[in-house]
């Protein structure tokens, strides 16, 4: 089994990362898990995989693929994402702020 970009190198890949505030790991995890199901119904969704750090479980990562930048922009403006964004300051440590990187597979 491969990755979505094995068959479509034109997908827009996103890697998002953030580090939970101390004591907020479970709360952030639950908030992030709650984003997965509604996101899977969005236009342009290919995958939206949530990961948690092994060495430091305060770190969370999304590995995502979208059909287009327009689809990603619509996702970032979806109600469930806007609601989550309103909680970022309460859940995410400033030493590991929410960072969203748009990347393209090259090899």
Automatic annotation (TrEMBL):
GO molecular function: monooxygenase activity
Coiled-coil ranges from the UniProt annotation: none
Residue span(s) of domain ABM: 12-100
Pfam family, one: ABM
Entry keyword set: Monooxygenase, Oxidoreductase
Keyword Oxidoreductase set for record: yes
Record bears the keyword Oxidoreductase: yes
Gene3D superfamilies: 3.30.70.100
PROSITE patterns documented for this protein: ABM
Xref: PANTHER family: ABM DOMAIN-CONTAINING PROTEIN (PTHR33336:SF15), QUINOL MONOOXYGENASE YGIN-RELATED (PTHR33336)
Descriptive protein name: Antibiotic biosynthesis monooxygenase family protein
């Amino acid at each position: 089994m491969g990755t979505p970009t094995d068959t479509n190198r034109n997908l827009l890949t996103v890697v998002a990362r953030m580090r939970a505030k101390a004591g907020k790991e479970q709360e952030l995890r639950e908030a992030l898990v709650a984003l997965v199901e509604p996101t899977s119904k969005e236009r342009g969704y290919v995958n939206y995989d949530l990961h948690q750090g092994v060495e430091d479980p305060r770190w969370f990562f999304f590995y995502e693929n979208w059909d287009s930048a327009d689809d990603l922009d619509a996702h970032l403006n979806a109600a469930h994402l806007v609601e989550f964004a309103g909680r970022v300051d309460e859940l995410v440590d400033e030493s590991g702020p929410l960072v969203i990187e748009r990347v393209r597979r090259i090899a």
